[in-house]
Each structure stands twice: as structure tokens, then as C-alpha cells.
Specification:
Blueprint lengths: L1 H6 L4 E4 L5 E8 L6 E5 L13 H6 L3 E5 L18 H14 L5 E6 L3 H10 L3 E7 L5 H4 L6 H12 L1 H14 L3 H6 L1 H13 L5 H9 L2 H14 L5 H11 L13 E6 L7 H10 L3 E6 L5 H6 L1 H8 L12
Parallel strand pairs: 3-4, 3-5, 5-6, 6-7, 7-8
Antiparallel strand pairs: 1-2, 2-4
Length: about 325
């Protein structure tokens, strides 16, 4: 049983030209030329791609997901001043060079949205972007309409990242230990139960979590545990990055962006999607009735894959 759990944490790592390792995983249709890079929310890791593996395969998509710096199998940055979305895009670009990918699309959700947009900004190979319940620039929009837990986390991420790292570290050491989950599979089972019963989930999302397959819940939990493989700093560094200016203007994104938002989302307010829609140049927006935050991400991922990999016109913007 311990060996079975251990395999859940598998993945690959590429040694980058700067000497750091970049963790990644590839799922879906492994032979497809339709490539999508997935930018997951936080805390999460490359392993979250497995949650969406069946959707990717059904859409005929080769899905690639990387660990952000200091998360999972990816080494932290050697200089904290290099913590930027441009550096993230550079790392991903080097991986895609290694994999001989000449064109791809990007999908990001929740706090992974900024990372997805950064790839569109800094890599000309990106053809389309899909954003599901993405956050807007917090340096401009703020967090007033978000749940109190999210406001507290982002406040600490910006004002006291070291304190947030310390708080997370205590939880990781005593609770979200990868080694303990592998050594004691029953501990992983308890974490899955706690994940299901967490008060973070409200309304539609709580109903969704309670009714999804146990295997899917386990994949979510494993992705979260893997995010803290090296400790908490990688996740808090990314949270800090989100609260700052992202290093690019939304209006500078020159590829089509598909936006999706659940009308019952109690995590990311609709106003954030409306803000993104008003600032991005080429958008198509869908507000989905009856869907929350997590339920939208999971139920509409397959449709998103199809939307971002559709055949492009010679002038992609002409479709909008």
C-alpha cells in the first residue's frame, strides 16, 4: 500500500540552463500535437494535472503541468529578487524547447491565472489562453470581495511573508507531511476526509466535493501535499508574487483569452472576471449558471481544452 501511495508522487524534472531543476508531468493524449500547459491554483503542484487527465485525453490534448519555483520537484530561485512571472515563463519556455513544442495553448485557474497570462505575454508560441475563475491583479483590484480566509492569506503574503511561511511550516511538519502520507496510508485517508469536510468549501462547491469520486479527492490531496515537499516557502513566495504588480499589462496580451466564471463562485468574485474582460484585448466570456469555484474548474476543464485548441484563423484575433 505504501508503494502505491509513493507512485502518486511521481514526476519528471529537467535541469535548466541555470542549474535549477524544474518539475513537470505530462498526461492526457501523450501522442497529440495539441499541447496545453496547465497553470494550477495554490497550494498545488504539477500533480494536479492528473485531476484533469481524463478530460485532456477526451479532448485529444497533451497536457503539461510544471511545479512553480520552490514547489514539488522544482528548485527554489537562487536569488529571491528573480521571483517574477517573466522568470516563470522563461523556465517553462526552456522545458518546452526541450520537449520540441513549437506552439501551445495555456489554461490557468484560480491563482494560476496570472501564471497562464504571463506565458501568453512572454512566449510567442502561445496561441490561446483559457482562464477559469481567475484572480485579477490584486495590486489594483484588491481582495475586499473575497472570503475572509483568502483576504488574510493575501494580506500576510504581501505584508508578512515570513510569518505566513512559519504558520504554513507548522502545518506541513505536523499534518501535510509527504513522508508520513507514504509511510502511513491511513493518514492520507484522514486528510482526504478533512479535505472533504473543510469549511473552505461552501454552497455549490461543498455539494460537489461531497459527491465526487474518492479517487479524485485523493488526487487533489496528493497535489496539495506535494506542493509542500520542500516546505512552505515556495507557496508563500508565489502568493507574494500575486499581490504585487505582475510585471506586464493585461492590455499587452495579444492572443485570444477565453474566460469562464461560475455564477455561484464564493471564492473568486464575478467582478474579477469582469475586470479581466474589460482590460484584456481579445476575450470571449462565459458565465456559467449553477457552478461554483471548484465545480466550474473540474466540470468545464474539458470544454476549455477544446476551446483553446480549436483551429486558428491566419489572424487569430479575427474570431473575436
Amino acid at each position: 500500500m505504501a508503494h502505491e501511495v509513493d507512485t502518486l508522487f511521481s514526476g519528471c524534472a529537467l535541469r535548466l540552463s541555470n542549474g535549477r531543476n524544474l518539475g513537470y508531468i505530462i498526461v492526457g493524449d501523450l501522442n497529440s500535437e495539441k499541447v496545453v500547459v496547465l497553470c494550477n491554483g495554490s497550494p498545488g503542484s504539477r500533480l494536479e494535472a492528473r485531476v484533469h487527465g481524463n478530460s485532456a485525453f477526451a479532448a485529444g490534448v497533451r497536457l503539461i503541468c510544471v511545479d512553480r519555483q520552490g514547489v514539488g520537484l522544482s528548485d527554489p530561485l537562487k536569488d529571491e529578487e528573480d521571483n517574477s512571472f517573466e522568470q516563470f515563463a522563461s523556465d517553462v519556455g526552456e522545458l518546452l524547447d526541450h520537449l520540441c513544442v513549437h506552439q501551445y495553448s495555456v489554461v490557468g485557474y484560480s491563482t494560476g491565472g496570472p501564471a497562464a497570462l504571463s506565458l501568453a505575454k512572454f512566449d510567442e508560441r502561445v496561441s490561446r489562453v483559457g482562464l477559469l475563475a481567475s484572480v485579477a491583479p490584486l495590486s489594483v483590484f484588491g481582495t475586499n470581495d473575497m472570503p475572509i480566509e483568502a483576504r488574510f492569506m493575501f494580506f500576510l503574503s504581501k505584508r508578512a511573508p515570513s510569518l505566513l511561511t512559519a504558520l504554513f511550516s507548522s502545518t506541513v511538519d505536523n499534518h501535510l507531511s509527504r513522508k508520513k502520507a507514504i509511510k502511513e496510508p491511513e493518514h492520507l485517508d484522514r486528510l482526504i476526509e478533512e479535505f472533504t469536510e473543510s469549511r473552505v468549501w461552501q454552497g455549490t462547491d461543498k455539494e460537489y466535493i461531497e459527491n465526487i469520486d474518492w479517487t479524485l479527492r485523493r488526487l487533489f490531496m496528493v497535489s496539495t501535499i506535494e506542493a509542500f515537499r520542500q516546505g512552505a516557502k515556495g507557496c508563500t513566495d508565489y502568493g507574494n508574487l500575486i499581490t504585487k504588480h505582475w510585471g506586464f499589462l493585461l492590455a499587452s496580451i495579444e492572443v485570444p483569452v477565453h474566460l469562464y466564471h461560475g455564477e455561484r463562485d464564493e471564492t473568486v468574485p464575478r467582478a474579477m472576471t469582469e475586470y479581466l474582460e474589460s482590460r484584456l484585448r481579445y476575450t470571449e466570456t462565459r458565465y456559467i449558471q449553477g457552478q461554483g469555484h471548484l465545480s466550474l474548474i473540474c466540470r468545464y476543464m474539458g470544454q476549455t481544452f477544446k476551446d483553446v485548441t480549436q483551429d486558428l484563423e491566419s489572424n487569430p484575433q479575427a474570431a473575436f
